[in-house]
Structure prediction request, 336 residues.
Amino acid sequence: MQDDSSQGHIDYLDGLRVLAALFVVAIHVLGPYRMELGQIPDSDWLVAVGLNTVSRWAVPVFIMISGLLLLSASKPFNWSHFLRRRVMKVVVPFVVWSGVFAVIAGLSPQGFSLTTTLSTLQAAPWHETYYHLGFFYYYIPLLLWVPVLRPVLARLPSAAVALVGLLWIGVTAWYLAGGQGWWRNDFILYGGYLWLGFWLHQYPRARVLWWGLGVAALGATMYQVLATSLAHQRYITQGWLSYTTVNTVLISAAVFLAMRALMAGRASPAWLAKLSRYSLGIYLLHPLFLWPIRAYWPTLSPAWWWIPVLTLYAFSGAALVTAWLQRHRGTAWLVP
Prediction:
């Protein structure tokens, strides 16, 4: 999602996109380690799960960026432009890459299974064909919020924006506590991140409070996941690593505001702005580079070395391929 607000290019979003893309790749590198408590060295498990815990903000931040850009635009809403330039720009590459990764899903060290590929494709309307594509199943429906929220936000005073945001944060706290209700669905729980991105960009107040809450939430999350898992000798999250619980919301808000403050008054370096344009392509393509690692060497040791190395390898490889695809008109649409 590139800048589409009336404010022109927003430099701190470059930093957020690149950092979030890097951490998403790391989440997928460390994935196989999580369930191996007792099967791999405890130090490797702690490194992997610790990094997983401090990385949960990465996916929500992508949604917050979209909310900032799509809800801040001051131009009258145009359905044709929105469908063509926003919805289809995401949906078409998603469908194509879903087909590509359905083929990859059929690959294993034992060979290729056409049956697996076909069954994966058959389930595609309801389930991602590959692990990283699950994001689009809740992101694409969120775009339906845009024509509803944009005219509302244009008229709301800052206090009302904050009140709605706080109510949604309260809902995510209730969700972590195990609450049940009509609100317990992805459209509302993820949709709040669109609002949060707009709110924190337009009214970046009480930043020290947000940062303090984010650090406290991170500490609580680390304790709950690591201590509980070690005590029971199996990987247990109890909802603390969900993208839609209050602890993740507070951590995401803290990271968002930290990058905003860090890059305040600064233009993005050329290399950062370029990598930012590749962020969606990096997200889409990095599992291509991780497939052999996951298939043959899923839990290389020591984790403190291999996870960063493999993250940089997959990130760099995906960035290079994205750059090549964007250079050609016939393929640029695959990595918008």
In short: The chain has one domain: 11-332.
